[in-house]
Design goal:
There is one protein chain. The protein has 580 residues and is mostly helical. The chain has three domains: 3-44 and 57-80 and 348-579, no CATH class; 83-235, Tetratricopeptide repeat domain (Serine Threonine Protein Phosphatase 5, Tetratricopeptide repeat, Alpha Horseshoe), CATH 1.25.40.10; 241-346, Tetratricopeptide repeat domain (Serine Threonine Protein Phosphatase 5, Tetratricopeptide repeat, Alpha Horseshoe). The chain has helices at 3-10, 15-21, 29-32, 84-90, 95-108, 118-135, 139-157, 162-177, 181-199, 204-219, 223-240, 246-261, 265-281, 288-303, 307-325, 330-345, 349-366, 372-394, 400-443, 451-480, 485-507, 514-517, 520-539, 552-579, and strands spanning 46-47, 50-51, 55-61, 64-70. The strands form two sheets. Strands 1-2 form a two-stranded antiparallel ribbon. A two-stranded antiparallel sheet has the order 3-4. TPR repeats lie at residues 123-156, 207-240.
């Protein structure tokens, strides 16, 4: 980092405004194009079919890049979080759906002479029992009956009969729900093959089987195979069921999700709109299924910068959920959270604050005062309050004291959020350490962190460093508004300590594998904190606040160099992924 760049940092006249104005702006393309948590370490929260996302926003200021992030529901239930992609593919077939698929097979064979013997009778009994247990979530017991049903189908109907395909599908669906993909995939493939041979490649039963197979590929992030299966299923359903059938719309929505995950938001948006149109024309435009699709469409609109349209859609979602589930259901409050975040991006700060306060009150009552969702809401409220304070500073008709009080309110909320995140982080560390110790003792060797452990650790660590980073910014604002040089110096030193603590957590998380610190969302926060600390050091180099012996200017140069290195490395990984 050269002297000219450092000079821009030191001479910035926008310190007070740019820190919070960085909350809004265009998304950083180098990170946006990379592999997100939703595809590597899923953390996007789901609440009864309402899906939220992390909105990353950036701003280019005269003293260097500043990253400050808004959370939109990323800190959801407990520790393990799932994206919509995983929710879509992991959603089980209901008992009714399984019965429907069995009935499709039987209806197609009505004109033929079906076998009737003790094996076929037992097949029906075992299938019904397995289906009932499956619907109750008793998967281990259901597995036994589905295995028996498959055996009886082969004995009673013959190895090539479609009833065998139906039994393969039921057992495969169970394995898919248990994430045993190595068992599920061959059974789904066998089901498709048997149905094609017995009923023809364009039979609707083949379409259902292909849809289920695609879900397995989607869960494994094999998007090309998932897309191929969904496209073929869609073609069959259009021909056999018609272009206005709800099952056609269902596969269309799943295909849209695959396209979105492949970066094709334009086509994904069109497919979701068509899917919603079919539901609305069928009289179920206000169903949970429709709300789920509207929520995904709203997310795509936000990421595409169509904020006004997203706001309208999110208000519709909120209205539907308030009618269906009541104003204080957690699903409704998640919709409130999403709308508030969009309003914040549109600079409608007063209404955003009101909605976030509503979220906070309900979550504190329904969950607990130390729940991770409460911490995330406090963080978001603090961000809005910081933006409001920035506007007060920019408005010369407002008093400095009014702005200072707003920053102090934001500081208080961030400190509460930090305490909650620290508690959750320590609990997550303890739980993972205990599990690893038990596994290592059992296997007699060290065990590396698996995806489940990483998913447990990411949300609390991300919440903690994000709140620390934001607190550093707010304290820097308060240093600018301090009443005396001594108070300003104390605040500046405090901001430096906070930012260094944030970097320490991300530099060397205690007992954590390198996989964790390479999560893109955590890397973004790391780069953001590097820039904030570098700007602070350059600005205060003459105040003697640096804790190291080397000059503040040299430290700032090293920090910015590290930030540039991380960005370059990330951009290279993105390019490599695109090439593959």
């Amino acid at each position: 980092m050269g002297t000219r760049a450092l000079g821009r940092l030191a001479n910035s006249s926008h310190w007070n405004r740019s820190l919070a104005s960085a909350l809004l702006g265009s998304r950083e393309s180098s990170f946006r194009s990379g592999k997100s948590l939703s595809s590597s370490y899923p953390v996007l929260g789901t609440t009864a079919g309402i899906f939220t996302s992390t909105d990353v926003v950036t701003n280019q200021s005269s003293f260097g890049r500043i990253w400050v992030y808004l959370i939109s529901g990323v800190l959801s239930w407990g520790g393990i979080h799932t994206s919509l992609a995983e929710e879509l593919s992991a959603r089980p077939s209901t008992a009714d759906n399984m019965e429907q698929e069995v009935q499709l097979v039987e209806d197609s064979l009505q004109s033929s002479n079906q076998a009737s013997n003790p094996h076929t009778a037992r097949w029906r009994i075992y299938t019904d029992m397995g289906r009932d247990l499956f619907s109750q979530g008793r998967l281990d017991e259901a597995e036994k009956y589905f295995v028996r049903a498959l055996e009886e189908a082969k004995k009673g109907f013959g190895d090539r009969d479609p009833h065998v395909a139906s039994s393969c599908n039921n057992l495969a669906e169970l394995y898919r729900m248990r994430k045993e993909y190595a068992k599920a995939e061959p059974l789904f493939l066998e089901s498709v093959q048997r149905l094609e041979q017995a009923l023809g490649p364009m039979h609707e039963s083949v379409a259902f089987a292909l849809h289920n197979l695609a879900g397995t590929y989607l869960q494994q992030h094999n998007y090309e195979l998932a897309r191929t299966c969904y496209e073929r299923s869609l073609k069959i359903k259009e021909r056999k069921l018609g272009p206005n059938h709800p099952e056609y719309a269902n596969t269309m929505f799943h295909l849209a999700e695959v396209l979105r995950l492949q970066g094709n938001n334009v086509d994904a948006e069109h497919l979701i709109r068509d899917s919603l149109r079919i539901l609305e024309e069928g009289g179920v435009g206000h169903s949970q299924q429709a709300v789920r699709r509207m929520s995904r469409l709203a997310e795509i609109l936000v990421h595409s910068g169509k904020l006004q349209e997203a706001e309208i859609l999110q208000r519709k979602i909120l209205h539907i959920l308030e009618m269906l589930q009541g104003p204080e259901s957690l699903s409704t409050i998640t919709a409130v959270d999403n709308l508030a975040t969009t309003l914040q991006a549109l600079r409608k700060l007063d209404e955003a604050e009101e909605l976030f306060l509503r979220c906070l009150q309900v979550r504190q009552k329904a969950l607990s005062s130390t729940h991770i969702l409460v911490g995330s809401t406090l963080f978001k409220l603090a961000v809005v309050t910081t933006q409001q304070a920035d506007e007060m500073v920019a408005d010369k008709s407002r008093s400095v004291e009014e702005a200072r009080m707003a920053y102090e309110r934001a500081e208080d909320m961030l400190r509460q959020a930090i305490r909650i995140a620290e508690q959750r982080w320590e609990e997550a560390l303890g739980g993972v350490a205990a599990a690893d110790q038990a596994a290592s003792a059992m296997l007699g060797t060290d065990v590396s962190l698996g995806p489940k452990a990483l998913n447990t650790l990411i949300p609390p660590l991300l919440a903690l460093v994000r709140s620390l980073n934001a607190l550093g910014i707010v304290v820097m604002h308060l240093a600018d508004l301090a009443g005396s040089p001594v108070a300003a110096k104390e605040r500046t030193q405090e901001a430096e300590r906070v930012l260094r603590h944030c970097l320490t957590l991300l530099d060397k998380p205690p007992g954590i594998a390198q996989d964790l610190v390479e999560v893109p969302e955590l890397q973004r926060e790391y780069v953001s904190c590097l820039h904030h600390l570098a700007a602070l050091l350059v600005r205060t180099k003459d105040q003697g606040s640096s804790e190291n012996n080397k000059s503040a200017e040299e430290q700032a140069a090293r920090l910015l160099s590290r930030a540039e290195g991380i960005e370059a490395s990330h951009a290279a990984r993105i390019q490599a992924n695109l090439s593959n």
